[in-house]
Amino acid sequence: MAKSHAKLTECDPVWTQITTEAGSAVKDEPLMGGLVHSSILHHKTLESSLAYRTSMKLASNELPEQILREICDGAYRGDPAIGTAARADIVAVYDRDPACDRYILPLLFFKGFQALQAYRVANWLWREGRRDMARFFQMRVSEVFGVDIHPAARIGKGIMIDHAHSIVIGETAVVGDNVSMLHSVTLGGTGKEEEDRHPKIADGVLIGAGAKVLGNIKIGHCSRIAAGSVVLAEVPPCKTVAGVPAKIVGEAGCDQPSVRMDQLLGVR
């Protein structure tokens, strides 16, 4: 793992693209120079840039930026897969969000991406047994970004959370790779049970705005959940569900709904 990570930092097309765009951004808008330099151009790696951005965003009178920066740096050193996932997340946002025309935008401005990267540090803390610090990160992410992801949740890579307002992902939730979700999505429980109680979202799923997926249920790969739906039962792979409660209304419509981002049901 360490060797592969070293090779990645030596030849890193995502970071190279970000730094190239950052140089152009400073030329186009000199007043943004301080932000762009401190967030991107002063760093040698994406991991360093992410640690800085996360610590600056989450700092407060309770825990200052310097301490949070040390924690974030430790997470990236301790688990290189966090940085790999961040790169996949940036590419996912660029590919799927028509409002994203540069790689620097998620890093500088998109709270869905920023909240997700802070969660990844919190998840590392949780796995390291530092539960109270992980919960502090969860609290600050909720306060700053309006996104509440339990640090014990398991989330894959290549994730796009568009707009991201009022996202809630519970403790025992699992989200696979290449999943897209929009604002006000809830992956929640159905009561006070304390065991495995949250949804399991397979790879390639598209979850529309305001959808609620509740309980320990499986959402099959490459399925679509329509906006505003309340899903209470298992969804087979490659299907579209809609309604309250949600029911199967057809096929997914394509082989990669989370990438295509087509949210219209039978309308062309």
Keywords:
alpha/beta, Ser_AcTrfase_N_sf, UDP N-Acetylglucosamine Acyltransferase, domain 1, disordered N terminus, 268 residues, 10 helices, Serine_acetyltransferase, 15% strand
Protein model, in words:
One of its GO terms (molecular function) is serine O-acetyltransferase activity. Pathway: Amino-acid biosynthesis; L-cysteine biosynthesis; L-cysteine from L-serine: step 1/2. Belongs to the transferase hexapeptide repeat family. This is Serine acetyltransferase. The chain is an alpha/beta fold and 268 residues long. The protein folds into 2 domains: 13-147, serine acetyltransferase, domain 1; 153-267, Hexapeptide repeat proteins (UDP N-Acetylglucosamine Acyltransferase, domain 1). 44% of the residues lie in helices and 15% in strands. The protein has a 6-stranded mixed beta sheet with strand order 3-6-9-12-14-15. A hairpin with a 4-residue loop joins strand 14 (239-242) and strand 15 (247-251). Mean pLDDT is 94; it is low at 1-6.
CATH homologous superfamily caption of the largest domain: serine acetyltransferase, domain 1
Rg for CA atoms: 19 Å
Q: Give the SSE order as H and E letters.
A: HHHHHHHHHEEEEEEEEEEEEEEEH
Structural class: alpha/beta
